[in-house]
Each structure stands twice: as C-alpha cells, then as structure tokens.
Amino acid sequence: MAYPEPLERLVASFERFPGVGRRTAERLAFHVLRDPTARELAGAIDRAVRETTLCRECCNVARRSPCELCSDGERDAALICVVEQPKDVEAIERSRAFRGRYHVLMGALNPAEGSEPGQLFVDALVERVRRGGVDEVILATDPDAEGEATARLVLEALGAAKLAVRVTRMARGLPAGGAIEYLHRGVIEDALEGRIELRLARRGE
Ligand SMILES: [Zn+2]
C-alpha cells in the first residue's frame, strides 16, 4: 500500500540524501512524524540554505563570499591547501600549523558510488591558480583509495592546464606517540617512502 502523498514526498526527499536508501528514508520520515522536535529540522534546513553560500574563492561553505579565511590579508595567498571537505579545513585550522589559504573540493572521487570528476570543484582550483599569485598547491586529500584518486585527478588537471605551480602532498607516516611494532603495514610503507633527510652534527667543522 502506498503512503499518503505528503509522507511519500518526505520519504522521497530523504532518499535523495547521499548514502540513504529507501528503508532508512522511511525510518527517518516516520521519526519526523512521531517526534515533534523533529519539525525544527525544516527550519534548520531553510536557514542553512538561505544564510550560507559557497565562497567564490575557496568553494567552502561560508556566511559570506569571499569567506573569512579568504578575506584575511594575514594569510598567505600563494599557498593553497586542497582538501575534500569543509571539516578538513576545521581540522587543519585546529592544528594552527597552516597559515595559507584553502580550496575545498566538496567531495572525493568515488567511481564505485558513481561520483564524477565534474561534481568536484577542480576546475575552480585550476582557474584560481591560472589567475596567478599561487606558488604552491598542497594536496591534503584523505590517505585512502578515494583520496588518492582525487589527488591524482587534481594533479592531472593542473598538469593539463600547463600551470607553473609547485604541487606537494602532505607527508604520511608515523603517528606521534605511536609505537612502530603496532603500526599497519601501509603506514610503515608510507613512512619509509616519505622519509626526510637529517643533518649530521659534525664536530670540529
Ligand atoms: Zn573562501
């Protein structure tokens, strides 16, 4: 038996969310009907859509465009850190280790789930670098299969545009506070591949 039309529409709306199938959509819809506080969701969605925008520079979600980070003259505009999601910007900002700008791709390449290169903000990055003033692009996509594929895509796009820009990748390897004996094989491989040279302290020089 079909649901009443308004309920069917609610289920269909949830079903369009990424990773939500029919059964989860139905569960969420019934939850909304039963829980009066869930009505706040409608207002929250409405506000989020009306009061946020995508930054025309870095493509991050922001209250205004250009966003706070892109308008901050103290930050190095010649250095762009490319990440998959807005939450990656938050994480790197928390580290206080980076004083450049960001570029948010808004996703990662996932051929298995049917995400296409066109859905990521790669062209916007290429255009940004083409406008000039960028010395280095740091690829900070996740260290998994999707992140690797996404980093390759960005690298190819920058290469195809024949841009004179330095491209680097965040180093991988040993987590601080860890013990080598418990590390995953891939972590050890990455750490060896990303090794850095140390200077010998020579006496008498
Ligand atoms: Zn921005």
Can you put this structure into words, describing what you see?
The protein has a domain at 75-169: Dna Topoisomerase Vi A Subunit, Chain: A, domain 2, CATH 3.40.1360. It has eight helices and six strands; from the N terminus they run H-H-H-E-E-H-E-H-E-H-E-H-E-H. It has helices spanning 5-15, 22-34, 40-51, 68-71, 86-95, 122-130, 145-160, 185-193; strands at 53-54, 61-62, 76-83, 100-104, 136-139, 166-169. A four-stranded parallel β-sheet has the order 4-3-5-6. A two-stranded antiparallel ribbon has the order 1-2. Helix 1 (5-15) packs across helix 2 and helix 6 packs parallel to helix 7 (145-160). 18% of the residues are buried. The structure holds zinc ion. Residues 55, 57-58, 60, 66-67, 69-70 line the site of zinc ion.
Short description:
This protein is α/β, with parallel strands linked by helices and 205 residues long. The chain has 8 helices and 6 strands.
